Every structure is written in structure tokens, then in C-alpha cells.
Amino acid sequence: MSKFKKGKQGDLPAISTASLPDIVFMLLFFFMVATVMRDSTLMIENNLPSADQVEKLKKDRTTYIYAGKPSTQYKHLGEEPRIQFNDAFIGVEDVRSSVLQAQADMVEELKSKIVIGLKVDKNTHAGLVSDIKQELRKANTLKVMYIANAKAEE
Amino acid sequence: MAKRSAPEVNAGSMADIAFLLLIFFLVTTTIEKDKGLLRSLPPIDDTQTEPPQIKQKNLFTVLINRNNQLLVEDEQMELKDLRQAAIEFLDNGGGTNHAGKSCDYCQGKRLDDSSDHPDKAIISMKHDRETSYEQYMDVQNELVAAYNFLREREAKRLYKQYYPNADKVFTAMLEEKEKNQFSKDEVLNERIEEIKKLFPMKLSEAEPDKN
User: DSSP letter at A94?
Assistant: First the structure.
């Protein structure tokens, strides 16, 4: 009788899932961008010491130097602690040129603010570290961060 | 024959594929933040000028031997006592600084045979080549902790009113500076510098002897 039929009442319309892929893709891109694949595989043992007076490190201006005993794969190199820079073992005398190279590759405005992150195994003897520091002084890159695991302050 | 229209590709599984990728990246992501002790090395000094004379009482010597034992001011010491000893040394305030001012904020014992003024107090550290890096870091950590303790105390005394809820005022100030790194807050920076000036970090490291 009535001309205007009332619409289907009570029947809830299904929620459209068409935008679900978009949402997921958005998340995906975020994580793809945020993911940092480890750029250098460690060839040495690297158990960091712990400290409670730590500060945060600014990643954009940091160059890492690793040091420690060669890991099991590189046993043939002996037991003596070695220095690793990027993907290769280097001697103490190469530290300076490597660091200067890394500094030259940096963004212009950060070059003077370069920080050297020392990731040194806790069982290394401190003499090696002071050798590295001496080379860094020669390279005039004087900001050093001794990287450590943060432990809760007692 | 009638042309058949191409069937529409079913995009329903797109979400599943994207989810799969998403979960992969979620699992592999490690937003790691490295932390550590930031120190500045002294520049190489080629000039042949005579090093300034430092009175023995303004020098706090820490030696670490190859067996990781500590010798502090010619006495053997355990690592756990080092922080307190360093604090007492820095905070002594027994005399005057270069400007002739005495340390009016020091709360130490004002002994005659300990440091004159935080401006003059120098901690000198020397280690053996065979000292383990772990011990070296522990000692560094304790010494930095001594400075941080004193700076924290001064920050609390001077600026507590701006951070009534903060447990550690100096840490709160540094955190705020970190947050505002794109909009420089001159007042805050000045305050931080002020506190650093009260207890300037004078930590010198001697090269280990070659043997």
C-alpha cells in the first residue's frame, strides 16, 4: 500500500574490508623503513661490559669500531683480540685511515661531530683499547663512546 | 563468438599477503639504541710547554694493575668504595679556585690534604696493558657516577622548583634537552652548563706503560 517501502530494517550492512590492505600496507612500510638490517657481521666475540651511567648514542654521527677475540669461525687467527672495522679485521695502524675515511663519507654538517663507538668485548685487555684511542687522537676524532649494556642502577 | 570480458582478479588475499610481510618485518625489526659512556680524548699536544704544576692534594690517582686490583691514592681499595672516595675528594672544597673563591656549595669535610676546589680537582687514572676491559669500564663507570651524583645534588638544590616531580633533576633536564633538540631552549642549556661548571669533569687518563 505505501509507496515508500521502508528499507531493510535491522539488517546491518557488512563492514567493508576493502581498506584493510591499505592499512596493513601502511604498517608494512613503516616497519620496512624502521628495520635496520645489521650492516656488518661480527667476526669477533662481543660481550659488552655493563655500566649504569650511560647516555644515549646519536646514531647518525657514529662510526663503530669493534674489538675482541676472533669468534669460532675465525679460530685460525688465534686467541689475541683483534680490531674489526665494518667487515674486515684491521691492524692498529689502520684505525686512523679507516676512521678518517668514515668521516669523509659522512654528511657535511655532522663531520665535525663524529663519535666513535667502541664496542669492545669485556675480556679484551685494556691495552688494545688505549692503542685504539691513541690512533683516534692522531686522527683528531676525539669523541668516544664506550658502548655498554645499560644496567639498572642499584 | 561473443568476447568474454576478463574476469576480475580477486583481491581478497591481498590483505593476507601484506599481513605475512608485515609480520616478517615486525619480527626482524630491532629498534636498538646503543648506550654507553661518552668521553672526550685529549688532543695531541706537540708544544713543548711545561705542563702546569698540579699539587698532589688536587690529584686523585687511580691505578689498576694487571690483576684488576685498584690502588687509589696509594691505598688498595675495593671497587664498591671507589665512588664514595671520589665523591669525597671532589666535594672536599678545602681551599680556593684559580679566581680565589672558595667552594661555597661543597659539602665535604674541607680537609687540608684533599682537593682545594672542584675546579682544580683532577682524577687521574692509569691502567696496565693487561687490565681487563671490563674492570676498566667498571672504574670509569664509578668515576662518572661520582660526578653525576654531585651534579645531581647541585641540580636539585638550584632547580628543584622547576621539576617538582622529578626524582633526578639533572637527568630530567638532560631529557628535556633531548626532547627539545629542534627548538633550542637557551635557558635550559644555560642551566645545564651552569651545573657542569660547578663540577667540571676533569678525568685524565695516562697511557699505560709499554712493557
Answer: G
User: Is residue B22 less than 8 Å (CB to CB) from chain A?
Assistant: yes
Please, are residues B147 and B198 in contact by the beta-carbon 8 Å criterion?
A: no
pLDDT tops 60 at residue A1: no
Window A:52-71, CB contacts with B under 8 Å: 52-57, 59, 62
Answer yes or no: are the C-beta atoms of A128 and A83 closer than 8 Å: yes
Q: How far apart (Å, rounded) are the C-alpha atoms in residues B140 and A29?
A: 42
User: CA triplet B194, B196, B198: central angle to 5 degrees?
Assistant: 75
Q: What is the mean pLDDT of residues B97-123?
A: 80
Collapsed DSSP state (helix, strand, coil) of residue B172 = helix
Cα separation, B194 vs B186, in Å, equals: 12
Structural contact between residues B105 and B41, judged by C-beta atoms closer than 8 angstroms: no
Residue B103 burial (10 A CB sphere; 0-12, 13-18, 19+): buried
* CA A132/CA A65 separation, integer angstroms: 9
What would the pLDDT profile of A94-118 be if each residue is shown by its tens digit? 888 888 888 888 888 888 888 888 8
Cell numbers representing residue B194 in the block: 651552569
Domain boundaries defined on chain A: 50-150
The pTM of the full predicted model, rounded to 2 decimals, is 0.76
Task: Please check whether residue B182 touches A, CB under 8 A.
Answer: no
The pLDDT > 70 percentage for chain B reads 96
Handedness of CA B106, B108, B112, B115 (dihedral sign): negative
**DSSP-based three-state secondary structure for B61:** strand
For A39-62, what is the mean pLDDT? 79
Looking at the structure, give the CATH architecture of the domain made up of residues A50-150: 2-Layer Sandwich (3.30)
C-alpha cell at A102: 668514515
Contact B88, B152 (CB under 8 A): no
Residue extents of the structural domains in chain B: 58-206
Q: Do B43 and A117 touch (CB under 8 A)?
A: no
Write the CA distances from A9 to A6, A12, B118, integer angstroms. Answer: 7, 8, 82
Q: Which residue has the cell 681487563?
A: B132
CA distance B63 to A126: 13
